[in-house]
């Protein structure tokens, strides 16, 4: 039985814990959960009825660092779900690094460590003979990394282009269909909980840039850093520009691009019939391959759908470890 711990008991952590406690992945038992304040560890595993809403209120809650769940050979698999930090990747980077050093497999949705330290972490995983899976870092539940690694490896991936941020796509869609100004569309997105109170990482294109770096490094062996991406956000997109694009049969979309020549994020004109021209909070990613040609995946790029990618990665670990 694989013993799994979750670090980060927020939106994704809670939902994933529920699925694991319901034994959705055969051969995997949830034994530990950590928040920033401390953790609970139950060797026998959690039943779904035993999952606390707030772990600090559990009778067996222990104050202390999350690393205590990673250090003591208490678990075999770490699922890292702490907040994305683009400055230094912490605390997720230390969690993942330590788990790999301890010989644990790791599954994560945390973009920070994977965008900032991709080479180090994948190198460490290889050196220790453990798995590091991160499908959930890009495109929510959409299979992008596993799709390419399973089904498209023999072909040559020439370019990745896509809408990788649902918040900015929602704002641009409201500007396109309702003629809203940027500020009004942003306020509406915040009221609906689609945009965060501080939406700067989304609006400035940094969230998309992190995802482009992860895709380029992982699918194109690019060895790039966040600073290699030319980034322009959507803050300066005017309702006049959106209306003019619409009149010419186009829409303005925030597009992330990765190719041998460039890594970029910028608002671009996309033809209304183009498969990438999707609206609302949807994401879409186009792989351009030498033999296959174009392949576009469309789906919810964040939210609950992300749990699907996490569960698949966990299942992948269980399959590999069951021999
Ligand atoms: N939500 C999505 O749709 C989505 C999609 C793809 C990727 N992601 C990424 O997945 C990760 C988790 O997302 P989320 O939406 O679940 O975030 P979230 O709701 O903010 O949850 C993260 C949790 O981590 C806890 N935390 C902070 N420092 C910690 C530490 N040192 N040890 C243990 N826990 C700590 C925080 O709670 P306390 O401070 O109270 O402990 C918080 O509840 C993020 O990196 C996010 O960017 C999210």
Topology overview:
Blueprint: E1 2-7, H1 11-21, E2 28-34, E3 38-41, E4 62-63, H2 68-71, E5 77-80, H3 92-101, E6 105-108, H4 111-116, H5 118-128, E7 132-133, H6 145-151, E8 157-163, H7 166-178, H8 182-191, H9 200-203, H10 206-220, E9 230-231, H11 239-247, E10 250-259, E11 263-271, E12 282-289, E13 293-300, H12 306-321
Parallel strand pairs: 1-2, 1-5, 5-6, 6-7, 9-11
Antiparallel strand pairs: 2-3, 3-4, 8-10, 8-12, 10-11, 12-13
Helix pairs in contact: 1-12, 3-5, 7-8
The structure holds NADP nicotinamide-adenine-dinucleotide phosphate.
Report on this structure:
By secondary structure, the protein is α/β, with parallel strands linked by helices. It folds into two domains: 158 residues, NAD(P)-binding Rossmann-like Domain (Rossmann fold, 3-Layer(aba) Sandwich), CATH 3.40.50; 154 residues, Dihydrodipicolinate Reductase, domain 2, CATH 3.30.360.10. Helix content is 36%, strand content 23%. The chain contains twelve helices and 13 strands. The strands form two sheets. The protein has a seven-stranded mixed β-sheet, with helices on both faces. Helix 1 crosses helix 12, helix 3 runs parallel beside helix 5 and helix 7 packs across helix 8. The two termini are 12 Å apart. The structure holds NADP nicotinamide-adenine-dinucleotide phosphate. The site of NADP nicotinamide-adenine-dinucleotide phosphate has 25 residues, from helix 1.
């Amino acid at each position: 039985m694989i013993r799994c711990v979750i670090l980060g008991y927020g939106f994704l952590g809670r939902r994933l814990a529920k699925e694991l406690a319901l034994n959705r992945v055969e051969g995997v038992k949830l034994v530990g959960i950590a928040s920033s304040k401390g953790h609970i560890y139950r060797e026998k595993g959690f039943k779904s009825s035993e999952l606390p809403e707030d772990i600090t209120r559990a009778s067996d809650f222990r104050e202390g660092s999350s690393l205590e769940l990673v250090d003591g050979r208490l678990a075999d698999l770490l699922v890292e779900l702490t907040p994305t930090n683009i400055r230094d990747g912490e605390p997720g980077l230390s969690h993942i690094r330590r788990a790999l050093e301890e010989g644990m497999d790791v599954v994560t949705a945390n973009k920070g460590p994977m965008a900032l330290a991709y080479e180090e972490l994948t190198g460490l995983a290889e050196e220790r003979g453990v798995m590091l899976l991160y499908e959930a870092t890009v495109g929510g539940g959409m299979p992008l990394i596993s799709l390419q690694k399973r089904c498209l490896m023999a072909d040559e991936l020439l370019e990745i282009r896509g809408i990788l941020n649902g918040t900015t796509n929602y704002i641009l869609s409201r500007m396109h269909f309702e003629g809203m100004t940027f500020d009004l569309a942003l306020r509406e997105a915040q009221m609906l909980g689609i945009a965060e109170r501080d939406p700067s990482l989304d609006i400035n294109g940094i969230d998309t840039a992190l995802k482009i770096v992860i895709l380029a490094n992982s699918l194109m062996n690019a060895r790039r850093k966040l600073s290699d991406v030319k980034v322009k956000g959507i803050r300066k997109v005017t309702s006049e520009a959106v209306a003019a694009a619409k009149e010419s049969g186009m829409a303005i979309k925030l597009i992330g691009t990765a190719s041998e020549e460039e890594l970029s994020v910028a608002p671009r004109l996309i033809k209304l019939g183009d498969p990438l021209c999707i609206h609302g909070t949807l994401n879409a990613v186009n792989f351009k391959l030498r033999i296959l040609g174009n392949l576009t995946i469309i789906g919810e790029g964040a939210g609950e759908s992300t749990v699907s990618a996490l569960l698949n990665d966990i299942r992948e670990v269980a399959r590999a470890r069951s021999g």
